[in-house]
Amino acid sequence: MSDSVPGSAEAGVVTDVVVVGFGCAGGAAALEARRAGASVVVLERASGAGGSSAQSGGELYLGGGTDVQRSLGFDDDADNMFAFLRAALGPHADEEKLRLYCDGSVEHFEWFCSLGIDFERSLYDAPSWMPPTTDGLMWLGENAWPYDELARPVPRGHRPATGGFGGWLLMDRLVAACASAGVVAETDTRALSLVVEAGRVVGVRARRFGEDVTYRARRGVVVTTGGFADNAAMLAAHAPDLLGHGVVSDGGDDGSGILMAQAVGAAVRRMAVVEVAYTALPALACRGMLVNARGERFINEDVYPGLYSHAALHEPGPCWVVVDAQALEEVGDAELWGTVPSYVAETIEELEADLAMPAGSLARTVAAYNAGAADGGDPLFRKNPRWTRVLTGPFAAIDPRIGFHNPTHRAAPGATGFAGFTLGGLHTTVDGSVLDLAGAAIPGLYAAGRASSGIHGHGYISGTSLGDGTFFGRRAGRAAAELEQGEVSHEFVEQGEASREFVE
Q: Structural domain boundaries of the chain?
């Protein structure tokens, strides 16, 4: 779709802004840059847009008083949202970015609505990885201790109106908006390196169907290529907690954008920080208990499941979900996700022996839990009384290593039950400018999404990847579009004129 540069064997295209990666952050950056008046080309190495964003659950962490929250009677504001997220995403959440995110959350919600994304005015009122309904709002641990004491409990998990995973719908609407705005998408195009002239990033070298193509950017390049969970070497160097576990991605989170930027002097931040999900079903865990290999509880099981997942990652394993018959009966088939017990026993002592736990360990844990429940509470971890009751036999233990919807009911060799992704990346300002090792902005270079270090500290809440990626992707796109135009070398001027219809 592009012509050869005069006097060169390499094809080239000139535009105002080049975006590398067409997931949620890339789509948001491209759309806002185009709306700011810039011509935009977005490069995607796959044969279509979407990336890991399209395969995600689709939750958006939004609050501050959205129309969905207000219609359901929840009183929220930016300060209340900030208080919760500062604790839940910490320690060491990026408070400057987080403050902007919370202050702009209602406007960001309305931006999603403007793309044609609908949210039903209904609440899914129970812990879950993914509600089996089309409810537009869900809890993500805001009503669990200690967060319910740090901020007024308000649900903020906004879900597009589709059952199950909804990331595809978000990307469908975002891709359509980009196309309508005149963003040019170049798929099957792998970015290889950044082009730098006189200390300024002025383009991207790429490979497309065996042909080298250089995309020149008059104003700026925005890197939105995702994290590095699929790059074992980078994990070993920066985030070894994920080694040996599953990966939550589309298979393309190989850190390529981070490495391209590092090659031109970019700094990185918080590369060791990861999020993990444990296939311990929230609907069962909250009704029973999550215990480690010593038979001990280590967290209140009604928290956001990513929080107990991360805690379990650092406990002596394997960990188990222990429930009684009543808990299994209360959870409907749609919420069980194909989960079945690995062990069933009439007494807790028999179950303890089946799980090869130290003698008396699990029995003491259950006895202490039941004593608290009988008094109406959980003195150890303060689980909400709604989910705390005396457990009575028969008992069952569920092994998270088996996973969900597993017809064999056996763990695959080497399975751990954990899968995750990275949260660290390029060090950026609130407007997406990539900083160098001295803390100065690299002219012409921006980043957003999981290729950058966003609002997170050492914690995570579902919806903050899509929310953070699109919010700061929008800011990066606008900043790149408004950057003063750089010089275009003579060999690209004629091609730029010839390609004006293509890129604009």
A: 1-55+166-273+423-504, 59-164, 280-416
Q: Which residues of the chain register pLDDT less than 50?
A: 1-9, 487-504
Q: Which amino acid is at 345?
A: A
User: 17: part of which helix (H) or strand (E)?
Assistant: strand 11-20
Q: pTM for the full model?
A: 0.93
3-state class of 72 per DSSP?
coil
| Cβ-count burial 322-336 (b if 16+ within 10 Å, e if not) | bbbeebbeebeeebb
Evaluate whether the domain defined by 1-55+166-273+423-504 bears CATH number 3.50.50.60: yes
- Give the pLDDT confidence score for residue 237 in this predicted structure: 98
Residue 241 region, left (φ>0) first, then alpha (ψ -120 to 50), else beta? Answer: alpha
User: Does the domain made of 280-416 have the CATH classification 3.40.630.30?
Assistant: no
Ordered DSSP codes for 94-120: -HHHHHHHHHTHHHHHHHHHHTT----
Q: Which of 24, 26, 306 is nearest to 168 (CA)?
A: 24
40-43/157-158 β-pairing: unpaired
The vertex-221 CA angle with 220 and 227, nearest 5°, equals: 150
The predicted pLDDT at position 488 comes to 46
Task: State yes or no: cis peptide before 146, omega within 30 of 0.
Answer: yes
**DSSP code, position 449:** G
pLDDT of residue 410: 86
Query: From residue 146, how far is each of 82, 84, 367, 386, 399 by CA, in Å?
Result: 15, 10, 24, 16, 27
Look at the block and give the residue holding tokens 């954008």: 257
- Cβ neighbours of residue 25 closer than 8 Å, sequence gap 6 or more: 53, 224, 448, 449, 450, 451, 469, 470, 472, 473, 476
